[in-house]
Amino acid sequence: MEYLSNLTADVLARAAKIRLAAFDVDGTLTDGRLWYSESGHETKVFHVHDGLGLKRLQAHGIEVAIVSARISHPVALRAEELNIAHVYQGQSDKRECMRQILEALELAPEQAAFVGDDLPDLPAMHLAGLAVAVANAHPWVVQRAHWQTSLGGGMGAVREVCDLILHAQGKSAAEQEHWR
């Protein structure tokens, strides 16, 4: 089975327009589990494949944003490591946050993708031109998504989305050539 072979014409058309890819954190960039040390410090586990995918989107001129309802120091550290400039934590209204990002970047909603896993992500997904649910997303989120990844949150799902966007924009061959 060829990678990304399950793409419909609609999903490809939507992904071809993307200039901003925004991601939830817990359950999307991570597996959704919250880890606390004995001292009360929060830790998170991020997948290295997802990180490279985000960097490759940026290398091709696609803006990347993190939009999270929670506030977490490990998220800030990971975003800094990946040079993600658009990091919005403590966002109870993700749709309004997305509207503000789009306005600041002078983009239309159809130029944005939002990737999530649970109910708080739905308003932002409704706004985005490409709404993606990770494989282990809540069924109501899957129902509203334009596309669902085959991998779960924190397990490479974000990389699938990055590859989808680059593929739809005709950049897969350049990516493969880059790594020869």
TrEMBL record:
Subunit structure: Homotetramer.
GO molecular function terms attached to this record: hydrolase activity
InterPro entries, sorted: CMP-NeuNAc_synthase, HAD-like_sf, HAD-SF_hydro_IIIA, HAD_sf, KdsC_fam
Keyword Hydrolase applies: yes
Organism superkingdom: Bacteria
UniProt name for this protein: 3-deoxy-D-manno-octulosonate 8-phosphate phosphatase KdsC
Catalytic activity reported: 3-deoxy-alpha-D-manno-2-octulosonate-8-phosphate + H2O = 3-deoxy-alpha-D-manno-oct-2-ulosonate + phosphate
Higher taxonomy: Bacteria, Pseudomonadati, Pseudomonadota, Gammaproteobacteria, Lysobacterales
Pfam families per record: Hydrolase_3 (PF08282)
Protein family: Belongs to the KdsC family.
Protein function: Catalyzes the hydrolysis of 3-deoxy-D-manno-octulosonate 8-phosphate (KDO 8-P) to 3-deoxy-D-manno-octulosonate (KDO) and inorganic phosphate.
Needed co-factor(s): Mg(2+)
Keywords tagged on the record: Hydrolase, Lipopolysaccharide biosynthesis, Magnesium, Metal-binding
Enzyme nomenclature, EC number: 3.1.3.45
